[in-house]
Amino acid sequence: MVLGRVRAAIADVPAGEVLAFDRDGAEAEARYERGGTLDVAARLALFVERAGDYQAEVTVCADEGAAIAAAVGAACARHATRRVVVPDGLDRAWVPDAIEPVADDPPLAWPDLAACDGVLSGCELAIAVTGTVILATGPAQGRRAATLLPDLHVCVVRSHQIVETVPEAIARLATPIAARRAITLISGPSATSDIELKRVEGVHGPRRLELIVAAPGP
Amino acid sequence: MTPAGGFPAAARAAVADSQLRANLRGATHAIRDKRAAAVAEVADWEELREAGRLIKERAMRHLDRHLEDLEAAVIAAGGQVHWAPDGAAANRIVGDLVAATGSAEAVKVKSLATDEIGLNDALAARGIDVLETDLAELINQLAGDTSSHILVPAIHRNRAEIRELFLRELPDPGELDETPAALAGAARRFLRERFLRAEVAISGANFAVAETGTVGVVESEGNGRMCTTLPRTLITVMGIEKVLPRLSDLEVMLQLLPRSSTAERMNPYTSLWTGVTPGDGPEGFHLVLLDAGRTNALRDEVGRQALHCIRCSACLNVCPVYERTGGHAYGSVYPGPIGAILTPQLSDLESGATLPWASSLCGACYDVCPVKIDIPTVLVHLRGEVVRREAGGSKDAAERLSMKAAAYAFGSTTRYRRAQRLALRALRVLAKVPVLGRLVPGPLAAWITVRDLPEPPPETFGDWWRGRRP
Asked: Residue A79: what are its φ and ψ, rounded to 5°?
């Protein structure tokens, strides 16, 4: 019934109409920028700056287990965080001795997940221009609830995972989406401006976001 | 839905409320300035707007095909699809789905489509308790109030009122000062427990991708993530116009929407799910595709672009009419310029017929629209439609008469010059009269009483031009 109404409503559209977007070379109609122009170092710097703009704490460290573990340990210490959910598939070398890792296997009940102080995860990719990290269900990133209920989210971003633009990121999401992995784009901690437009950080998700950006040494 | 007397009557009351006017002015100006800065940062903004317009145009012109693709993709990914010709059907479908879970409560993500069809009341009548989880929607729900702004629905309330409301309505508010942080914290504690125990969630959708069956919710607070992740069953109600043909269309929309809406480079959280993900999130996903008048709008070749709207609310914040009246005067879930073209069309001009006049046609809404909806053109078009329907009535006699007079005066150069000089002399006299409103007869009085006449120039442009020629 709804489809019938739709067809009747667009009866004026010529059968076989091909709009510019459908044609070969349709991209000509969309003249916006898709790819980035920055080199690796500039892209990394832009991501750090933009993620910081949204009140994520950003630490840059060397891309090796001990350096990452030290940065994760410092981040957890800043928030007095001890019990930390660690999803399957996360590099164990990233887990500092000072924290108590909690496995989400077998899957924890929601109250047990919520009772953990923090979560340590990797990511699927990150966007420099918007300071966004993107999670997809799977190894090192776990299921969505694990990165949602604990109060602190420590997320490790490796520099090769950072793309410059939003279109580059969406193109890279085609594969995980085809595999029905759930996607979450995160830009800073949760926030609301619902009361007199005053921004309050940390409403329902993790109230603090710590990003550990791991880059190869110079 | 529209209040008795339509927009003019409701607007008169709202404009008289100086506190409301001050709140609105502060809010709309703050958001519009930030939006301008967020947009200025993007070198290819105009190209993105054009791409956004093309994407939505394509989606609407071939809507049947995209909806069929969407249905097939969602089913292939483990979801179920339901078709709702009207609000009553959608409410019945959602009610049946909730009832089938055995749960008598649901948590809900802010959704204009469900507000439009009165879902919460319909479910309450079936004994299902629906809890709004967006902070502003929660405030409005606790207060028994309705939204006044698409983006910040409780903009008409101040912090002291919200504190009193929470102290009165929340089960265990504790010590509560009136800082926004403390108030948001109280909402977090109250809602956290409900999220953890919820069996069913109801959401709207910002878009759904036909190609992949992926549905998206764009938000800031994290209540959207909670609702789309924790409950066993997720029911999403989406207007049929929200479908996007391709996954790559998201690369345009996810640039246009956050900057236009909250003036952010990206909103804090965007959730994208494709049917059911084994071991992650709801075990059952239902997508309810809602018509409820959208095919009325689609039928109108000029008006159908109202369906391109991505609900960013930028047009509200720049509108001189909205700034003075606020959202409630529109008598619709969709206020502001976009509401003025959407509301009448969704009801086939049955309600909101005065809304196409709730505009000065200044065009600011068109300039900020991220998908380039030509709102002024649609407004004028709808005025014509309404007048045609009401032809024979005397309602617009004054307008028609003045247009006839204008046509006569513009019809010949001599008549035009004579009319101009006459008007100039009349203006010089009238500008000196302090209580003009009481002297001007008929419908013109309404215009004059709230406005000042401009100081008339010494001569007409034509006379000045002729005089300066050698």
From this structure: -115, 20
DSSP B125: T
Question: In this structure, are residues A128 and A36 in contact, taking their beta carbons and an 8 Å threshold?
Answer: yes
Task: Tell me the nearest-neighbour CA distance from B258 into chain A, angstroms.
Answer: 10
Give the closest of B48, B84, B225 to A148, CB-based.
B225
Which of B269, B274, B291 lies closest to A190 in CB terms?
B269
What letter does residue B456 receive in the DSSP assignment? P
Joined tokens for residue B314: 């930028």
- What are the structural domains of chain A? 39-215 (3.40.50.10420)
Size of interface A-B (CB pairs under 8 A): 248
Residues B429, B270: Cα–Cα separation, whole Å:
61
* Separation CA A113–CA B107 (nearest Å): 20
Q: In this structure, are residues B65 and A54 in contact, taking their beta carbons and an 8 Å threshold?
A: no
Residue B391's SS3 state is: strand
Q: Which of B355, B301, B306 is nearest to B330 (CA)?
A: B355
Which whole-number Å values give the CA distances from B450 to B7, B12, B322, B423, B435, in the listed order? Answer: 17, 11, 17, 21, 11
In 3D space, the residue among A29, A134, A126, A175 whose CA is nearest the CA of residue B247 turns out to be A175
- B6: distance to nearest CA of chain A, Å? 28
* Max CA separation in chain A (angstroms): 68
The CATH homologous superfamily for domain B58-290 is NagB/RpiA/CoA transferase-like (3.40.50.10420)
List the one residue out of B237, B224, B243, B216 whose CA is nearest residue B290.
B237
Tokens (6 digits) for A3: 């489809």
Judge whether B281 and B273 are in contact, CB under 8 Å: yes
Pairing verdict, β B269-274 and B214-219? antiparallel
Rounded alpha-carbon distances, angstroms, from residue A66 to A39, A70, A100, B121: 27, 6, 17, 56
B461/B450 Cα distance (integer angstroms): 27
Pairwise CA distance, residues B21 & B450, whole Å: 15
Nearest-CA distance from A148 to chain B in Å? Answer: 7
Give the length of chain A: 218
Residues of chain B with CATH 3.40.50.10420: 58-290
For residue B182, the chain A residue with the least C-alpha distance is: A200
Written as six digits, the tokens of A116 are 């953990």
**Tens of pLDDT, residue by residue, chain B (470 residues):** 445 678 888 888 777 777 777 777 888 888 889 999 999 999 999 999 999 999 999 999 999 999 999 999 999 999 999 999 999 999 999 999 999 999 999 999 989 999 999 999 999 999 999 999 999 889 989 988 887 777 777 877 888 889 999 999 998 888 888 899 999 999 999 999 999 999 999 999 999 999 999 999 999 999 999 999 999 999 999 999 999 999 999 999 999 999 999 999 999 999 999 999 999 999 999 999 999 999 999 999 999 999 999 999 999 999 999 988 888 889 888 999 999 999 999 998 888 899 999 999 999 999 999 999 999 999 999 999 999 888 755 445 556 655 665 566 566 777 777 777 777 776 666 555 555 544 555 555 555 444 555 667 778 888 888 887 66
Q: Give the contacts of A170 (CB within 8 A, at least 6 positions apart).
A: B247, B248, B250, B251, B254
* B266 neighbourhood in chain A, CB within 8 Å: 127, 130-132, 166, 185, 187
Q: Which of B23, B132, B248 to mutate to test the interface with A (most CBs of A within 10 A)?
A: B248
With tokens 């878009």, the residue in question is B207
